[in-house]
Each structure stands twice: as C-alpha cells, then as structure tokens.
Amino acid sequence: MADLYLKNLESERRQLWATCRLKGLPKDTPERQRIVAIDAAIAAHKAKAKAAE
C-alpha cells in the first residue's frame, strides 16, 4: 500500500529544495528551516513504520 503521507512530505521537500537552489537561499530562511522540519518528520515516520513491522 502506498504511504501517501510520506510521499507528500518527500514531494514538498523536493519542491522546497529546488526553490532554495534556484534562488540561492541561505540556511536561516523559512524555506530551509521547513526542509529541516520535513526531514525530521520523514525520519520519525519511517522509524514508526519500522517499529510497527
């Protein structure tokens, strides 16, 4: 079964990362901070899914 939550997070991360690269945004911008938050959410979700196995 497809994990839509994980796919949504990864899609948003890719989109934000592309925007940051095109604009050359520094690390302290809201977009870059959102990427860090998404990374943490992805890691937590994968750990939860692995523990449920």
List the helices and strands and how they pair.
Layout: H1 4-23, H2 30-52
Helix pairs in contact: 1-2
Computed structural class: mainly alpha
User: Radius of gyration, rounded?
Assistant: 13 Å
Flag low-confidence runs: none
Q: Number of helix segments?
A: 2
Beta percentage is: under 5%
Q: Into how many domains do the coordinates divide?
A: 1
Q: Strand count, sense and closure of the main sheet?
A: none
Shape: elongated
N- to C-terminal separation?
14 Å
Share of helical residues: over 70%
Q: Mean pLDDT score, rounded?
A: 92
SSE ordering: HH
Number of strands: 0
Give an overview in words.
- Helix content is 81%, strand content 0%.
- With 53 residues, it is mainly α.
- It has one domain.
Question: What labels describe this entry?
Answer:
mainly alpha; 53 residues; 2 helices
